[in-house]
Amino acid sequence: MEASYGFANKFRDQVLRCSSCGFCRAICPLFGLTKRPAFNARGKMLVLREVMDGSIDLNDELIETLFQCTTCAGCAEQCPSGVNVPDIIKQVRKDMVFVGSCHPVFIGMNQILQEHTNIYGESEPEDFERERNRSAQYVYFIGCVGSYREDEPTMATLDLLDHFDVDYTLIDEVCCSGVLDDVGYQINKDLAQKNIDLVLATGAKTVITGCPFCSRTFNNKTQYDRLKKEKVKVIHISQFLKDFDPGVKTDKLVTYHDPCDLGRHCGIYEEPREIIRKIAPNFVEMRHNRANALCCGAGGGVRGAYPKTSIAMARRRLEEVGEIGAEVLLTECNSCVHNLDNAKLRAQKLEFCTTSQFINQLL
Ligand code: SF4
Ligand code: SF4
Question: How many Å lie between the centroid of ligand 1 and the Cα of residue 113?
Fold first, then answer.
């Protein structure tokens, strides 16, 4: 079996470069929660070494180890040997799907996106009482979570864009389908094509996304290259709002959770803080922040496949908010909002929302 798997062809050097130093343990949300060596990057690399040696095959017995990873890239940030674990894991999952071993939840997710235009298989999104598909300077792309599960942060962002007189339009968007690439499949070309056609039809030269994962997908995946060719820029809402001054302030102690997709994956740490500092002079960082921020536990399909584990990881993140006594926790990702909110204990006195929602409340 040696080197017949795609991951072995592409990442053999990286897997062998893992020196088992264990630095990645400090930040891995799965290891932090479970203390199981097989769940952190070091354990996964040891398993993959055995697969490359031909001692074991990629099969169903490895699903638990290789699908329990939020692809948060915390390990890659710590790794002195330059092992890019999320990229390796994503390729391994594709190899597993190829040999017929995949987590059943992801088989279902792939099927849903063959038959529907969103990851929840819902028929009608909230209309948000806004015009769609018209000519405008900007397109605001909401994303599945903001369209079907977290409509309050979306409404708040749209209200804020109206407050600042931004010329934007919504479109009849469909799932960017980036999640398929994380869980063993390929981005759905038809869905990508539909999004691109709808964006181009508006004449907008900038797409503002409410979801950092959609932003990443549009900017980095070849299926969306046509946007670049047509000189359409894609930015996250935090990059857009940093140039505005809402002119309101709070005295409350505020902290910020860096979403993995915005922070480690896109390198956007400063823009969200720039906005928050304008409205919250009492801003305080959590123990793990920026490139070292703890993952909320939602990414890499883990929220869907391992919901209890995902919530438990989110609770660990919320403990850090408690440590600094923050009254308000802000973030910039609807998936983080969804997971951290589900994990919040009733006794925990904490306001928690996106920065746009918070600004709207102050306004
Ligand atoms: S990407 Fe995140 S969850 Fe996956 S092994 Fe690395 S630190 Fe752990
Ligand atoms: S930090 Fe890098 S080299 Fe060290 S154990 Fe983790 S993956 Fe291997």
Answer: 26
- Which is it for the CA torsion 227, 228, 230, 235, positive or negative? positive
Q: pTM value? A: 0.96
Assess if residue 330 is contained within a domain: yes
Report if residue 131 sits inside a domain.
no
Q: State the distance from the centre of ligand 1 to the C-alpha of 360, rounded, in angstroms.
A: 34
Ligand nearest 90 Cα, by number?
1
13-36 pLDDT, tens digit per residue, is 999 999 999 999 999 999 999 999
65 CA to centre of ligand 2 in angstroms: 16
The answer to whether residues 259 and 230 belong to one domain is no
75 CB within 6 A, ligand 2: yes
Ligand 1 center to 68 CA (angstroms): 9
261 and 174 assigned to the same domain: no
pLDDT per residue over 41-75, tens digit each? 999 999 999 999 999 999 999 999 999 999 999 99
Domains identified in the chain, total number: 3
Please give all residues whose beta carbon lies within 6 A of any atom in ligand 1, as ranges: 24, 27-30, 40-41, 69-75, 85-86, 295
Q: Are residues 236 and 295 in the same domain?
A: no
Q: pLDDT tens-digit profile of 239-279?
A: 999 999 999 999 999 999 999 999 999 999 999 999 999 99
pLDDT of 1 higher than 50: no
Question: What percent helix, strand, coil does the chain show, rounded to 5?
Answer: 50, 10, 40
Residue spans of beta strands (DSSP E) within 98-214 = 138-141, 168-169, 206-209
On the 0-12 / 13-18 / 19+ scale of CB atoms within 10 A, 210 is buried
